[in-house]
Structures are given as structure tokens and as C-alpha cells.
TrEMBL record:
Keywords: Transferase. PROSITE patterns: GST_CTER, GST_NTER. GO terms for cellular component: cytoplasm. CDD domains: GST_N_Phi. GO terms for molecular function: glutathione binding; glutathione transferase activity. It catalyses: RX + glutathione = an S-substituted glutathione + a halide anion + H(+). This is glutathione transferase.
Length: 213
């Protein structure tokens, strides 16, 4: 039975869930949500996602929202399928993994969100972006990526030498950066970041999603 993902594939959060489903060989079906007409704020939606956002999933009656929590659940629930080791089991390796999960949310997602606010959401509302704000966020983001360069100079992935959910969590927002015209993840000035980014975005699990986009 396919997991039902309520949302739209253009959402980076929905992409995150679909990516992990692909890695774990879990079939899924995206149930479109008409956000333009406020379907995500209707009582029938809010009973499953009280914050009125996308996505949430229905896995044979089990309802869950927040894309990173969903990714964690899918990885654990379907542990015997697909890519192995996405969540470490050794106590110290798991701690480093959790550190990388927090790093993505605090130092990567937050910066992409700041840029998207100016370049995507304002455009959607027919507003002019604040280019001074864009420059400010980019300057901060570059310092964050300098730290990534140091980390990835010591190991293959953000939580060690093995691929984890912490790496996959970066992919949708990183792809959004390119859609906004920022190629900072491919920059030759940070060869370790560029190597890592090419690695995780060339996986068949992500290539299939890009084809659908």
C-alpha cells in the first residue's frame, strides 16, 4: 500500500518526504492540496495538520506531519528496505548524526528560507525583493558554507563517512537555491562542498523527483 503524501511536489518539504520514500523503496502517492484556494486551512485538513501546512502523510491510517519527522519515521518503519544506515545506531555516531540534523535546520534551511522570502514569496505576491536583505543573507550563508567546507574536508558526508538523512534533508532546499539563481553549492572555491553536493544530488532517488518537477 502506498503512503499518501498530502501536498504539492513543488514544496521542498514534500520533496524531502518523496526523496526518502525513493531511498527506502516505499511507494507513495501525492494527494494534491489546493493551497491557492485555501484547502490547507479547511477543517478537514486541519484535523490532520493543526498548523495548516504541507505535507502530512497517511500511512495506512497513521497520520504524521513535519517533513523531517516523516522522513525519520519512514526510515525506521521500513528499515529493511532500500538504502541502509540512514540513521546510525551506535550511540556516538547517532549523536553526531543528530548534530548534523540540527546543523541543517539551523544553518542551512534558515538561510535558504531567508533568500526564498525575498526571491520567491515576494514575487508570488507581486512585491519587490529587498536586494540589500538578499546580500545580507548571502553574506551570512557564505560564512555557514565555509564551516561546511571544513566539516566536509574531514569526512565524506555531514555526519561522517556514510550517507544519512542529515545529507538528504539538504537536497530540496539546495535545489531551490539553484532555481533562485544561486550556484554557491557548486562553487570551485569550496571543493569539498561541491563534491558533496554533486554526490547527494546525483542519486537516482533525487533525479527521479527532478524529472517530475
Amino acid at each position: 500500500m502506498a503512503i499518501k503524501i498530502y501536498g504539492v511536489l513543488l514544496s521542498t518539504a514534500v520533496q524531502r518526504v518523496a526523496l526518502v520514500c525513493n531511498e527506502k523503496n516505499v511507494p507513495y502517492e501525492i494527494i494534491p492540496v489546493d493551497m491557492k484556494n485555501g484547502a490547507h486551512k479547511e477543517p478537514s485538513f486541519l484535523k490532520n495538520h493543526p498548523f495548516g501546512q504541507i505535507p502530512y502523510i497517511d500511512d495506512d491510517g497513521f497520520i504524521l506531519y513535519e517533513s523531517r519527522a516523516i522522513a525519520h519515521y519512514i526510515t525506521k518503519q521500513y528499515a529493511s528496505q532500500g538504502t541502509q544506515g540512514l540513521i546510525p545506531t551506535d550511540v556516538k555516531e547517532e549523536a553526531i548524526y543528530e548534530q548534523a540534523i540540527a546543523t541543517e535546520l539551523s544553518h542551512f534551511d534558515s538561510q535558504v528560507t531567508g533568500l526564498a522570502m525575498e526571491r520567491v514569496y515576494k514575487k508570488y505576491r507581486n512585491l519587490e525583493s529587498d536586494e540589500a536583505k538578499v546580500a545580507e543573507v548571502l553574506a551570512t550563508f557564505n560564512t555557514k558554507l565555509d564551516a561546511y567546507e571544513v566539516i566536509l574536508g574531514k569526512q565524506r558526508y555531514v555526519a561522517g563517512d556514510n550517507l544519512t538523512l542529515a545529507d538528504l534533508n539538504h537536497v530540496p532546499n539546495g535545489h531551490m537555491l539553484k532555481r533562485m539563481g544561486f550556484d554557491i553549492l557548486d562553487s570551485e572555491t569550496r571543493p569539498n562542498v561541491a563534491r558533496w553536493w554533486k554526490d547527494i544530488t546525483s542519486r537516482p532517488s533525487w533525479v527521479a523527483i527532478v524529472a517530475d518537477l
